């Protein structure tokens, strides 16, 4: 496990003598914060400690706490001398404590990792990756990186000299723009190795109603190995958008989507799916048929890791009646444990922080299922850090009501777990298939002809 960050001891405890301090670390779980980010733990008076390797296998401070509680009977913890002795003994038998001159150490200042970010817009324009890096600064540790799979056509017959840049600005159709994947891959490759580590590029330029979509995804991986962590955000049912796309309309029941999700299971690609939970403005009592379809789809693809974007909400697709209890039931269902939710998009933030009751209900849900929610901005080519961080700021009332564990996992921990896992699996898949042809000639069938003709 490659953990490089080092955090200085908190100022408030630095005045204590080392034994008391160590005892207090153990008793008050301050040590768990260090174990989260450090290989070396720095103590006052120039002492430092190398964290035992098996601690580092504990994925986060809360698992570490459980680990301690399992092996340290509570009566030991009540006596500070025994606490200190036990801690020191434990450390000495598994590692070494040594004097070390004070050195400059940098703190992890990231507020969040962004699980949902668009570098470009509906006409494939956006900000440069260097600009985005400067916006991320030290406050955004890591981010996903994707464009938008759809291009808004500038139809002169429809809007004349007006060049639409958003899908709501024209009645002309949208079409799938596969070049976005090459653009994102080349953008990522323009970065230094150090900066690349901060990004998880995603493949989006496929038509989910096309049985060949999975082949496109595979081709992108083979053409740009070492780049992508997942697919998406791609949409099946999206208010105002789905019906505007040229060609066959996408559907949750289309076998083309099964092929895509099957390939994600095979390769380890993480999938970010946008699918509205209901149709806009449903009539009272209208069957929310999309819920049944999407749950069936998820159950069919148990081995695919999926993030359901925006908790299924939209600009006008409101929370279904009893949305919280629906989510509660969904999250408790073991057949759906491979599905997480992101709370990205300013529109979603509006629903969640609308009233003290909505904040409390959402916080209770996230506290109950801390492994299943991810923070994201859903910003599209933001002009500056002020705009980029707006969604994060608007969630402050929610964050204030989360447990330390749930807050950490929402903002960073779940991102790290899911995307790191995807990186490892996808790199392994690429390695195993590196000799496969990057340009697959479709196998001809009696109905498709001989394949290689003009
Ligand atoms: Zn989005």
From TrEMBL:
<dbReference type="Pfam" id="PF04909">
    <property type="entry name" value="Amidohydro_2"/>
</dbReference>
<feature type="domain" description="Amidohydrolase-related">
    <location>
        <begin position="114"/>
        <end position="419"/>
    </location>
</feature>
<dbReference type="InterPro" id="IPR032466">
    <property type="entry name" value="Metal_Hydrolase"/>
</dbReference>
<dbReference type="InterPro" id="IPR006680">
    <property type="entry name" value="Amidohydro-rel"/>
</dbReference>
<protein>
    <submittedName>
        <fullName>Amidohydrolase family protein</fullName>
    </submittedName>
</protein>
